[in-house]
## 1
Amino acid sequence: MKMNQLVDALKKWIRGRKEEAEKKEKKKGMISAISREIPKEKGIAASEKAVEEVHFPKDKLEHAGKVEEALKVFSKEKNKERGGQAMRVVPVYNMMILPNSTIYFQIDNFRTLAGKTVEEEDKLLLAVLHKNEVDTKALHKEEVYPVAVEGTIKEISQDGYAVVATGNRVSIEELSQEEGQPLVLKTNPLYDVEDLNQEEAGRKLNEIKEELKDLVGRFHAGKVMAGMIERHKSIQEVGCVLSPWLSINNEERYHVLQEDRLSVRTKMLEQIIYEYIEVTKVTTDARTQQQEDYQKLYKEQALQKQIDYLQKELDEMHPEKVSDLRKFELRIEEAGMNETAKKEATKILNRLKNEGTNGQEAGMLYDYLDFLTGLSWKKEEQKEIDLDEAEKILSEDHFGLKKVKERMIQQIAVMNLKKQQSGSILLFVGAPGTGKTSIGKSIAKALGRKYVRVSLGGVRDEADIRGHRRTYLGAMPGRIMDGIQKSGVSNPVMVLDEVDKLSSSYNGDPAAALLEVLDPEQNNTFTDHYMNVPYDLSDVLFICTANSLDTIPAPLLNRMEVIQYQGYTPREKFEIGKRHLLKKSLKGVGLQAENVELTDEALENIISDYTREAGVRGLKKRLDTLCRIAAVHLVKGKGEKISVGKEDLREYLDMNPLHRREVKEEGKPGIVTGLAWTAVGGEILYIESMFTKGEGKLNITGQLGDVMKESAQIAISLVKSMFPDKAKLFKENDLHIHVPDGATPKDGPSAGITLTIALASLVTGQAVSPRIAMTGEVSLEGLVNPIGGLPEKLMAAERAGVKTVLIPKANEDDLRDVPDEVKEKLQILPIKTVEEGMELCEIHYVKPGVETV
Ligand code: ADP
């Protein structure tokens, strides 16, 4: 801006000077200057502002002819005092006032300073103020510097300018100018000491001109300006011309004016001008540099836009050739990420761009972007689910499991109503192969959602759930987010398998991390360490599975709704085998139903003699084996189908029938049948006890846990108190308690009744029939308290050929969950006390203090 105005001003000035020069050629040594008025209220006006306000009249040099006359007025009349009405004193501030120049004032300002009635040809005294603020209507000697310049108003132009031609310098002797009072003014002329070496001055002027021309060469109108500079006739003239742009203050300006010696004044001006040149050069250099930088930036942006546009066109024409970086760019745009994720992804993409695909970190950055943009960030719409249809899907895929199916239908109904996830976290607990995982798949099908299974078995580190921070070498996302990515949606049904196999280590507690994943209050902003941005898990339907509740951390278990899978009866297994498993096995090897003919009797036999399990995994394996044999048969061209009867199983399955865990034929004192619940379902077990010669020591074998050992102590105390006359046996002998199948660890309180009856049988020498099995916790009072896993235990009892089962009275309600076919085959006797149990086992017991007859 500043430079443009300078250029305009100088152009006009050149024009004016040309005319003037032509007319006044004879007037040698005349110095005129274009100056400007600095608004009074602005103080020592910043030169920039001043430049903005500088204006020049179009016909500014029409006055040119009048300069000569002005000079006549102030002819060198030595020591002649002047003063009087015709003279006006005009105070100026921060202007370069030099003798024999032309100075321009804005008319309004000029009138304020010189008075409203000023006219052309009025004589003036330009006096330099000490301070910027002064009352012009009452001006006194003290307020101005002693050296001033005389002048004549040469023109008051229509354009709003007053042109003043200056003459000699004068010294002010007296000054008092007050409104309504006659002006008191006494001055003495001051003469320049003409000590300038004209030759040297001419050379210096030329040097200055060269410098100035070099400077203006950087501006747009450099040539015009250079021509104009050529016309400057003295350094004083140059100083006056540059006045508005000089960064020197009022005092410094006056200092130039008051110097008598022309040589010194010229030197001062020279210095000021060179300073101006240097400062301007630096400023323009910096500005040019800045401009260049900006230009480069704009150019780059424009080019980038063009490249983007062209790239887009190309991408559309050849979608198969879209570059990886571009692919990420598109994926970031389209993924529907939240703000934080988008920011992070863009940041990483920019890093990858800067790094280049061969950079050190490129692989890591690539993997990260691939992962983040591979996730689905969009909220899926909640579909309305047809309950009947869902029910149909569930029952088509799975046989039995009535309770589980009912609960799932409730869940779906709630989700339909609330149009969102129902808050409960489901935990399916049961033996392997009871369909926990596969029903998760059916639920996904019924809900019309994607299914994903995440195994938590063996997870020890928090990082397995929550991911590694990206700073780790080989960092990976946690299993949860990995599962989400595999599902490709934001609302899959996620089965978290084996939560009971989670264990904590020094690397943090994975259960706590899992809790955060599952907690509906927090999981809408789950932040995987690898991703480092929050992800909304609130639409995911989590289903956890476990074989046993014992090892699930309590805080986690508290949040879950436990749904028990009890294991199947042989009848159920038969149906599952026939309706589902065989079909699956056939499909697995690419056979049709007609290729394998399996008789019902054979299937029953596989279940009874070739598997021993609560679920159906073993059964599925056996059927798979049969189907593979059929496949070989078919491929070898031995026939279209194989028939499998009961008698072929030994050969086809290539294994001996499993030793059936059946109850013993005969009972022996001290040995009683118990019922246990293990991770693989129910089992029968024997509690064996024996006295050996000794001194009252207790020896327990069979890998019994602490709780079970305590149950043994309770049993001993109870038996001692119930049979006081036999108590000495415990003192005189060592007691050995053993629970066979020694390799399997056993624990829990439910063997309390069995241990007590076994010891009672031992001390009384009365055998209990092995076909009576029992389960129940016992208190020192002799009460039988409730236990868990009753259905599995009863099923195991039935499988093993037990006829009668003693159960705690408080567990009677659980019988509802026991399949009818099991209940039909067993005599189930609820008991409240140990005494009742003994009675039913026919152990003769006499209450202390009661005489027997
Ligand atoms: P879990 O998760 O309880 O260990 P799975 O879900 O893996 O058991 O089940 C093992 C196999 O048995 C699967 O092929 C499953 O389809 C089948 N299965 C289990 N229960 C049933 C059932 N009630 N009806 C049909 N198939 C079943």
Note: Residues 262-317 form the longest helix (56 residues).
## 2
Amino acid sequence: MINVIRSPATHLKEVPTLKRPLTVLKGIGPKRAQLLGRRGLHTLIDLLFFLPIRYEDRRRISPISETRHDVPALVRGMVISGGEERAFPGRRGLFRIIIQDETAPLELLWFNYRKAHLDGYTTKGQTLTAYGRIRLNRGKRQIIHPDITLVGDAREQVFLGYFPVYPAIKGISGQVLRSLISQTLAQGQEANMEILPEETIRRLGLPRLGEALGNVHFPPDGVSIDLLNQFKTKEHRRLTFDHFFYVMINIVMRKMFSRERTGPVVSVPKDLEDRLLNYFPFSLTRDQLRTIREIAGDLAIGRSMNRLLQGDVGCGKTVVAAVTSHMVIHNNWQVAIMVPTQVLAQQHFAYFSSLPRSMGFRPVILTGRLKWSDRLKRYEKIRNGEYNLIIGTQALIQEGLSFARLGLVVIDEQHRFGVRQRSLLDKKGENPHLLVMTATPIPRTLAMTVFADLDISVIKEYPKGHRPVETFLADATQKRKVFNTLYQRLSKGEQGMVICPVIEGSEEEDLKNVVEMHERLTKLFEPRFRVGLIHGRLSTDQKDRVMEEFRGGRIDLLVGTTVIEVGVHAPGATMMVIEHPERFGLSQLHQLRGRVGRGSRRGLCVLMVSEDSSHESLSRVKVLADSNDGFEIAERDLEMRGQGELMGTRQAGAGELDLGAVFREPELLTAAKEEAQCILESDPKLALPENHRLRKLISTRSIFPTD
Ligand code: ADP
Ligand code: MG
């Protein structure tokens, strides 16, 4: 699971002691500061909110003979022997220390190590404490790359008890990080930090911020390890509440503002619904038509529309966006369509360019690859109104571009939730209508809170001819059969995808698995078919190129991570294999499988479950095989509290909600909204941006995110 809590941290930037750079800490010189900076850690506050991703239970020492294969254990024993071993001169060696307690011996092994460091632990008769996952290797117990300490060492303090594990930072060991955080916490306690109004803390019975941060970084022995690892201790919940509260303040405030905002008046042609028959080669579904009527109602009354269009993958949201754009452009306004990726921008540009001229579109695309001079030319033609439909990624459209008459902004495939994009629009100083589209099915109750500042339209009906993706569970024994099916599909000229999870905290290992899977499939399928690879470590350009090749059919089989998820479809893709589905959230799996079977052939999705999956996680994943209704699946996800590890929107930044946290703690979200409402409604003047009291209460940056 991912735990990103950033907005409250921005508030603490007002506290002078915590604003200081990390170099004030013992043990940090310019070099380490630079390494930490690369990870976005610059000040003491940043470090305070850099939270553990999981906890190890190192409270009890086990007799070595009672440790079990593949289970982590804390053991203590006397050193029997120790030293480096090399099979051949010049080859890489290994380092082995053997310890023993009253019950059994244990081998500690290292393949990557600093010899000088480990040499310090080899003196016979010393007592070592070691933690790690036990392996039974031909009857011998081993730990590979254990964490060790000498009994009586000052380090034991942090080594024992609950042990926090942080996201890896290149060049900074966990040990160094923990020491830095404990120094920072001490400084924080002195600063007596708090960011919530006193009344809120009392009313909800929340722990104070200093205490919460202290216990989340270094939990006391009494709490349950399960609560810790689910981020459900009262201290974790306090931090989650803060995160929600800051986003909710923004959302409630936008709702209060938007009541009074005047927007472009757009008159709707009387014969619109007849015209649609000429514009599209099919008739619109009832849900599409209803949505269009709801939108037309908003556009006509002279207030800015703020509407969310929620609809499962493939239900035809783009058509609704096209009709809405047509209405706005028909009234001589411009439309901007913002999408998360360049490939999606290209896909939309091609689509809108293909629509009949009579719809009135003069589309242009803005991509990062444009030469500067070309981009300036396009900017100019947007400024003077020659182009009336501007399609691009969010970054491009926001960046210094001005419009002649911007009447509507469409945000497509919004999968980062919160108020950030919407707040950025406010700064444009105009009040264009806003249509946000998302395929993330959030249960209605939650949507009303998450999108409190938006009116919601839902499309439930699929276009005629839509066939749901067939979904099966398979285990390792069926792998061969699965790959055979894949081979057959590719032989027919169809395309396939294989998705592997990458989770924060085990990125290195996970990424290795993706690359290995790619190698394996390349061996199996090339040269007859071309196998591509895509993951988050590639540059945006590289990713776009791979996606384009896949869309264009030049790659037959694409192996990758969830970066494939975002809105793009390859019409030829008909089969998807998902590795370790139990590590994903259900809604995310549903979105993923929606990427296949969008052409004429029905899609097939195989969920490759591990043999050692628990009964619970199997029955959870099975929901996918049984249902094709994104909303129903989201409801189930909510019931099960979004247990998939990947549920979170990893990059929740200032003004954005971590969707994982939303599914985990729906009640806290409601409480946060109520608190925000209570504060703002008790004194509506607080909601004015120029009001200093609110600025004091909550940080300027988190209310009006600018970064
Ligand atoms: P999404 O909601 O996932 O963005 P799209 O807008 O991309 O879905 O639509 C999916 C496919 O369905 C497209 O190929 C589109 O042309 C087609 N489509 C949309 N509406 C209809 C309809 N009313 N009848 C038939 N096909 C439709
Ligand atoms: Mg779409």
Note: Residues 17-59+160-190 form a domain with the DNA polymerase; domain 1 fold (CATH 1.10.150).
